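For reproducibility, we list the full input for the heme C complex.
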Amino acid sequence: MRIRVMLAALLVVLAATADAKPIAGTASLSGAVQAPAAFQAAQVHLMNTDRNVLFMVWTRGGRYQALNLFPGRYEVTVKKAGLATDPQSIVLEPGDAKTLDFALREQAARPVRQGEFGFTSSVSSDVKLVSYDELYPREPGRDVLEKQCMYCHGRNFFPSKQYPEPTWNTFIDVMLGIGADRGAMIPSGTLSAADRQTVLAYLTKHFGTTSERRGLRMDAQFPLDEAALGKAMYVEYYLPLDKQLDAANKQRRTQEPHFDPQGNVWYTDRSVPNRIGRVDPRTGEVKDFMMPDPKADPHGLTVDKDGHVFWAETVGFHLGRLDPATGSMMRYPMDSTGQRKGRGHTPTLDSKQNVWFTVIGGDMLGKWDRQTGKSTVWKVPTAGAAPYGIAVDKDDNVWFAEFRRCRIGKFEPKTEKFTEYAALSQPCTIRRLGVDSAGIVWYGGFNNGKLGRIDPRSGAIKEYDIPMPFSEPYDVWPDRHDDIWISDGGQGGALIRFDQRKETFTYYPTPQTTDQPKLAITREGAIWYTPRSSVKAAVGVLYPDVTTMTTLAAYE
Ligand code: HEC
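The corresponding predicted structure, in tokenized form, follows.
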């Protein structure tokens, strides 16, 4: 018995280390990249213009290799700060293994942009970028702004506004819940009258009508591990813009990736009219389904074992359900008694295929029961918690992030008991969390760049500093080896692997400047994400080791 287990383990290891064959019907491209001076890990962008799909790899020792590419026409270019080259075109047929070399020339370096999270005022490339201290001079109001406002709004929000004093004053009222239908953003009793005056004066002085629109300059460069990056590949499937539907917005906004049993990847699209849709990663084919309410603002989604797609609506307090086979859609009230109202956020499934969901506005946790078809909600213990990300552990306990109150909550369905764990560094915002195979709960400190670890058995909590400045960890999710993957938009967009045994962080900067609100990881270890504040809406994936890929499909 013992030997059999060991043999099986050995076979798994062998299978994982042997190079997989190229995927049937694909092509590959490789080449040398030369430059006037030594460089590390240049990005090679291979844009398949026939299918509207981008492949991105890195150079290692001045060479790159891109495997498992769709056939078709490509525009290929190499990107590296301070260096430039002209794009080249190439056509790849199935089975092709072609080469294409590049020579980089020197070019004045452009400062790296910092990403923006969700608020519409993202930094455009023509905005002047300045250092943190220049943007936020060290005066008394800075501290108040950081503690009371920036932990939610990020670092690029205020410099994108040029408001007169009365406007800032009104918005502070709104944030305090005065005249706001969403309730208070700043918990009552936390902003003193004196601090309010100080922050108002600071905002008016530095982000007033005569101020210039600016963005934050990142002086630090991503740490680049060429050996790791040289094996990795990003793929982004861009969503088509519909001539009519997207005429006004000119943009789409993907939110959450999830896999169905057939290997497709589903997403919610929060641009109006709202859609949910799927990408077939084997072909790049995209199919959209119009939502019953075009302004219900779907946030998270999940897919059950029959392939039915469930999503949570932030407006109207409904859970939606789609049967992709028939295209039929249903909606369930999030509280079947009709007594409570709130703003739904993220759904997930337990082992019995019940749908659990967070309610960010209204501070609730909910369950749609598969047997009865009815939903129940429970108030979470802390008012103003704003329950956000959600995960179910092996024992069907439900874990959720208390976004505004810097805590992690646990709900035991059998006893209906809540337990809360306060993060070590207070105050903070926590967007999402994940549970690894050992039952350890991981969370990201969105405003303070911490990675947190809770051991539910002992209650011990540990926090790690994510090594880059201005880190904004959004989702944290384990892969099947229990490496923890972090999506970080604060630094302009990176997926980060945290090896919990070695306590090391490896950076994989994203092809576009963006945040990535949710991750989903396949059984082969491919990391799917949705770039949200990016210029081009997409469903994207990172293959950390392209040589072990056996499929483009995404299976849980
Ligand atoms: C808990 C998170 C949170 C905190 C803390 C917070 N905000 Fe907000 N703020 C929001 C959200 C969410 C919105 C969007 C409001 C909506 O859509 O109802 C918003 C909207 C705003 C807007 C209007 C956006 C626009 O389009 O111009 C301004 C201005 C603003 N906040 C300023 C502030 C200031 C100043 C502070 C601190 C004194 C602050 N906020 C604190 C979450 C927060």
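The domain at 253-348 is CATH 2.120.10.30 (Neuraminidase). The first strand starts at residue 27 and ends at 34. Both points were considered when choosing residues for closer inspection.
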